[in-house]
Structure prediction request, 345 residues.
Amino acid sequence: MAAPILLCDTTGMSNERWLECRMHGPKGDIPYTIGGSDVAAIFGVSPWTTPLELWMIKKGRMKPKPKDNADQLEMGHLLEPIAAHWYAKKSGNYVYEDKGLYQHADHPYALANFDRRYERASDGESGILECKSCTYHKADGWSDEAIPLYYEFQLRFYLAVADVQHGAFSCIWGNNPANDLAMPEIERDRVKEDMIFERLEEWIWSLEHDAPPTMSGVKPTLAMESLARIYGNSQPGLPTIEFSSKFEHPLRQIALLQGKIKDCEAERKLYEKEIEAHSVRIAEVMKEHEHGILTTTKDKLLIDFVTRTTKRPSSDALKKKYPSIYADVLNVSTSRKVKVSVQPI
Prediction:
């Protein structure tokens, strides 16, 4: 392979301009591009973006979803130099910034910015360092030198673009570098790399030939959220969709499971009424007391009868007394759920 092509220096570049360069190159002459953070989405393993949503964004048919964790993203950006510092200190490698936007020598659509580069102390070879941060409950994903798959895809993509043989992560999640820091390394793997770029080539072909991907293999919750962002609200008056027979099994499963949920709800209400009936005698004994106990030969039955106070604004009173304020504070939410009813012919 040849060395990557340096397209531009992003130092001092506005975020808007950086996004333009990332989308079509600094000259705007690259029809479709793929960045490191896109690779996991293309493979359907991103926790945040589905292949179809990314495809729609690349085609210019929708805008990226607004970031609902802006403060967390800002914190991650602020922690980058700290993660880099501790990697350098613990590894002994020389770490430095590289603000270039690079293009793969053989795949013009593949563009990359790197968090940091490093030179290995043992032999002076250059590598790519990705600086990450996470919360404590996500730290298990980095235990025992493990690397979350979506980040591994990203770094392997960067190694290919930069044409270097190794890379590393520095991920922090606390203030004790002895325990709250992971620094797994990876070596370049040409077999995995070829597999990645074969899929990326198919992806570019799908963009060029207007062939959108499906949600196959995407986690259902993420898929439904993504479809809601892509297609928005339902539109009254549109014609009824005729489904082919290949959809009969999932449709019947939905109808069956929805029926089971309805049965469970009915059973739950029955149980609640029975509990209420048994509770009357207990409440008569408890009176104003909050706690009770019944000791048997094998266990203890602990009884709680505690007053819980919940304060909620009265929407009716607010609407009547302060109509303009009521309109301003309305929290509007939308949802769409598939419902299947079986109608005999």
About this structure: The longest helix spans residues 248-286. The chain has a mean pLDDT of 91.
